[in-house]
Write a structure and sequence with these properties.
The chain has about 475 residues and is mainly alpha-helical. It has 15 helices and no strands. The chain has one domain. Helices cover about 85% and strands about 0% of the residues. The longest helix is centred in the N-terminal third of the chain and has 41 residues. The chain starts with a helix and ends in an 8-residue tail after the last helix.
């Protein structure tokens, strides 16, 4: 690290470990919130584009976009193997003033992310045909989905670098650099996708392929920008060739902390995949049915609640990690509760918008009247559970920020496998409750996970977790 980087590190550290807690959490969360909003616009806009293509392909396109979102979510969960450990260790070292160690963690993490990104691409490319086969899709939908997933998989090579780089920067307390990089990527995604979908000048109209090519272009750009930022040494973290290695105790610590988080993600994704299968059963196994399209839109809309939850979750994780590194356990405990209080105020606003605007929102998102008729009433119910959803996300982030990644894994097992899937199947399929019945299982899962996460956090034993 250069002298200027070290000086910057020393001046920024006290603001997080000893400044006013309320304003510290807020100032850390706001840049991440803006970044999350821009990222959400991409998924929202991709779904919007797919829903307004020619009627003959719009349902298939929406299915492809939705499944790609699920695969992308799986990829981000896998990258959590590295990202969770990265944030926990960088923030601990930063809080303790051990900036050189924090920099070594960042370098090891980028090296791991590069290899893992290539592995994810190969798995997605080889496994793409299995997705439509497992879901009994018709040949035309299968063709679109396979092609979409394989093209989309290329971007995951670079997604790993951008996500892990952002995790390292946030651990150091730098929320703005990831905001600028990932925010720019989101804007680029929208511009390129629109241009390729509808054509512009010499650029031909590409339809569904234009959506995914815009996504890949943005992801590649994001990975390259993150590497450039780390080469420059933003916020005291600098890539150095001699530190880009897979050896040493730090690598083991990163993977040991992140292992349960990655397994947590895989369990969560697997549970949601089964949940998707249940949703398809509501439409007689049809993945281009109005019910399935309504579900995909609902999941995309619910991402609005994830935005502030993830933002305040990152703020809590960084503050907790650095506070524990500086041996301020009381501040660490108060940080999680403060993040939840601030975010739940926003979640209440989202609840009101979803509840009273469900029909208008669905009408905007899809041109098919059946999709609107199925989705809007069920989504009004889901609107009432946005506060527990946000609270569960933030408390899990807080626990992981301390290095406690095992208990959140059990929360996922109980909530998704023990509650969501069986309740959704009984209420949606057995009792013929349709999408409304299936989403009862989803809402029950939100409540159970929120209660379990709050209970664990309130005990405070996580603050003694060794990383």
């Amino acid at each position: 690290m250069t002298d200027s980087s070290a000086d910057q590190s020393k001046t920024s550290r006290p603001q997080i470990v000893s400044g006013p807690l309320r304003s510290t959490i807020l100032l850390l969360a706001l840049p991440v919130l803006l970044e999350q909003l821009l990222s959400f616009c991409v998924g929202f806009y991709d779904t919007f584009l797919s829903g307004h293509l020619a009627e003959s392909v719009s349902a298939n396109a929406t299915t492809a976009v939705g499944l790609a979102a699920y695969v992308g979510w799986l990829a981000s969960m896998i990258f959590g193997l590295i990202g969770t450990g990265t944030t926990a260790l960088v923030s601990r070292f930063w809080g303790a003033g051990e900036f050189a160690q924090a920099n070594r963690v960042a370098n090891r993490s980028i090296a791991l992310a590069t290899v893992l990104g290539c592995i994810v691409f190969l798995v997605v490319f080889a496994g793409a045909p299995l997705v439509p086969r497992m879901m009994n899709m018709d040949p035309e939908t299968s063709r679109i989905v396979i092609r979409y997933l394989r093209i989309d998989g290329i971007g995951h090579i670079f997604t790993g670098v951008s996500l892990i780089g952002a995790a390292a920067l946030r651990g150091s307390g730098d929320m703005r650099s990831p905001m600028w990089i990932l925010g720019l990527v989101s804007v680029l995604n929208i511009i390129v996708s629109t241009t390729l979908v509808y054509g512009l000048g010499p650029v031909p109209e590409m339809g569904v392929d234009g959506i995914v090519l815009g996504t890949v272009t943005a992801r590649v750009t994001g990975g390259l920008l993150m590497l450039a930022a780390l080469v420059r040494g933003l916020s005291g973290l600098r890539l150095m060739r001699k530190e880009l290695t897979f050896r040493g105790e730090l690598v083991s610590r990163i993977l040991r902390i992140g292992g349960p988080a990655a397994l947590d993600g895989l369990i969560m994704w697997g549970g949601h995949f089964v949940f998707l299968k249940i949703i398809s059963m509501l439409g007689d196994g049809d993945f281009d049915s109005p019910i399935f399209a309504a579900h995909i839109i609902g999941i995309q809309l619910e991402a609005i609640t994830y935005l502030p939850a993830v933002a305040w979750g990152h703020a809590a994780a960084t503050t907790i990690g650095q506070s524990l590194g500086s041996s301020n356990h009381d501040r660490a405990i108060r940080a999680g509760h403060e993040a939840v209080r601030q975010c739940c105020m926003l979640s209440l606003v989202i609840t009101l918008v979803f509840f009273f605007g469900s029909h208008a929102i669905y009408s905007l998102m899809h041109g098919n009247a059946q999709v609107v008729a199925v989705g809007a009433p069920a989504f009004r119910m889901v609107a009432l559970f946005q506060v527990p959803l946000a609270a569960s996300i933030i408390y899990v982030f807080a626990l992981r920020g301390s290095g406690d990644t095992r208990f959140p894994m059990w929360i996922t097992i109980i909530g998704v496998i023990g509650v969501r899937i069986p309740v959704a199947y009984v209420c949606g399929v057995v009792l013929e409750g349709g999408l409304y019945g299936a989403w009862i299982g989803m809402c029950a899962d939100m409540v159970v996970r929120a209660l379990l996460a709050f209970s664990r956090y309130r005990q405070g034993s996580w603050s003694k977790t060794r990383v």
